[in-house]
Write a structure and sequence with these properties.
The protein has two domains: 5-83, DNA polymerase, domain 1; 101-315, Orthogonal Bundle (hpI Integrase, Chain A), CATH 1.10.443. Helices cover 50% and strands 4% of the residues. The chain contains 14 helices and five strands.
Length: 315
Amino acid sequence: MASSPFLNEVRTSIRVRGMSIRTEKTYIYWIRSFILYNNCRHPSEMGAAEVVRFLGYLATKRNVAVNTQRIALNALAYLYNQFLKQPLGDLEFNYASKPQRLPEVLMAAEVASIIKEMTGRDKLIFSLLYGSGLRITECLRLRVKDIDFSRGSITVRDGKGAKDRVTIFSPTLYESTRNVISNALELQVRDNKESIGPSIPGVLAKKYPSAYRQPAWMYLFPSSSISRHPVTGVLCRHHLHDSVPRKALKKAVVAAKLSNKRVSCHTFRHSFATELLRNGRDIRTVQELLGHSDVATTQIYTHVLGQHFAGLGFV
């Protein structure tokens, strides 16, 4: 199914529209799941009724969260509205009602105890997650050009929802970041001798064929191995896979004796937001730093603190 001609056509159309690899994989996953759920019937033979039944199945049988259901709907909306040109119209169904669980957060001292158990690259990665509110994928995709030491800021490119944003960059991380950049650029020089460099988005790679030689495009956290670009097939060095810092985190949590808590990479982003609100930053500012489209998403952190934050930036 994964390599079927139909799914390959959908995949190609997604790439032509310049969507991210992550979006491509997500859409293909849900489209494939939809087809399998309907006994491998071709999507062109189905429509809104089958989509509604599938979304209902996700809510009642697979007990998915409402956000997961929305992602599945986005994938199927793309399939029908954009690819097949068979608009679904208004769908009448109820979103999943699974209660939203408050995010797990860490106190500043707990964050410090975990990071203390790390060294070098891993220590910087989790310091950035906590100090800048980054998602793990956003952090690992950082390039040299995204770091602004003079302004104390980090630019997150093509974040969730294909949005760019600017967030804070702590001066306490300048030295370790410069060291990581220096090591990455040395690796880039060695790679360039073999006509290899950091992976470049397909469209930009065609427009700027020598971009992989420019320091600005080098990843801060490059992979230890060479691979082929998933779109262009060109040999390149991608960024570090997220499984590497996740393993480092697991060890650090045990060493810090915090195994009783549900600590993930995303916990550091949650803790960043909560700490800002605890220290009096207005919720609109926190919303912008996190890149949330709706302030309601950010407001969940006020519930974590158990306070209402009346009058703090809601105007």
